[in-house]
Amino acid sequence: MASSISRTIRKEIVREEIRPDRSLYAERSEWENAMRDAALPEGCAEREDYLAGVKCLWLLPDEFKSEELVIYAHGGGLVTGAISTHRPFCAQLAVALGRRVLLVGYRRLPEHAFNAPRDDFLSVYYHLIDTDFCTPDDVVFAGDSSGGTVTFSALVRLRQQMRPLPSATVCFSGAFDTSLSGESLQNRADLDPLLSPEVLMDWQKHFRDRIELTDPLISPLFADLHGLPPTLLLAGDHELWLSDSIRMHEALGSHGSPTRLSVYPEMWHVWPMWPELPETRDAMKEVDQFLEEIEMPATT
């Protein structure tokens, strides 16, 4: 059963609507400006950086539990979202996990090529391991919503290139199917307080007639998923994207890749971005436990 705090917050959430008069630039600016000056949680420092020409932000906890590095791909449907929108959440993640988090400011669509988000994310990863800053065994890929598409597209590309894979992957409310073929788009339509089927179908306009919506580059659910590292998928039972996490869990398992799915009762899309939720604390504890279980011995 969901917490009483979650029920209060749910009543305050304003469901997204289609706004034909709002440009993509205005949509981005609205979100970024709202979050730009958000305070970070206590116990976390930040540092801007450029790695392989890609703007990044380090979130560094005061207290370290592990030398692992979480490389994070932000959500936003591949078209919005930025370092500024996800900076507070990634700081919260760094403090909760006691691990460094590197938030990657990848190029967004539709003004860049469809492979740009994946390639920028990989460029950062390549730079870190090729310069011996860390080993692949010390790296975790993570993301929320469409950041899950970025991380899985990157994993598939690494395997294709026979490059070393990170130790694990974590996805919060992953959006893995741009074709929107999951049944939760309909059977959760009256439950999701944040998103509507109409908003998601309108979002497809950024891809439609330019690329097949089931292309694994933007819909990694349909990729060859064999040989990938252990994955933790967290999803909310009331979110429209629920089917994506369920089907990704099944697809990974059918390809022999280790996977764990955790569905939180009555939660909505990327609920861990609300730090006051007890369900957020539970999710952070679950991620920490998952990483502790798969963590490789530190290199000496």
Give structural notes.
By secondary structure, the protein is α/β, with parallel strands linked by helices. It has one domain (4-12, 39-294): Alpha/Beta hydrolase fold, catalytic domain (Rossmann fold, 3-Layer(aba) Sandwich). The protein has helices spanning 4-12, 24-35, 83-97, 116-130, 147-160, 184-187, 197-203, 242-254, 278-294; strands spanning 44-51, 54-61, 69-73, 100-104, 139-144, 168-172, 231-236, 259-264. The chain has an eight-stranded mixed β-sheet, with helices on both faces. The chain is globular and about 50 Å long.
SSE topology sketch:
Elements: H1 4-12, H2 24-35, E1 44-51, E2 54-61, E3 69-73, H3 83-97, E4 100-104, H4 116-130, E5 139-144, H5 147-160, E6 168-172, H6 184-187, H7 197-203, E7 231-236, H8 242-254, E8 259-264, H9 278-294
Parallel strand pairs: 3-4, 3-5, 5-6, 6-7, 7-8
Antiparallel strand pairs: 1-2, 2-4
Helix pairs in contact: 2-3, 4-5
Concise summary:
With 300 residues, the chain is α/β, with parallel strands linked by helices. It is built from 9 helices and 8 strands.
Feature tags:
globular, 9 helices, Rossmann fold, alpha/beta
Distance between the termini: 45 Å
What is the overall pLDDT average? 96
Q: Count the helices. How many? A: 9
The overall strand count is: 8
Strand content: 15-25%
Quickly give the CATH architecture: 3-Layer(aba) Sandwich
The largest beta-sheet arranges its strands as 1-2-4-3-5-6-7-8
Oligomer: single chain
Radius of gyration: 18 Å
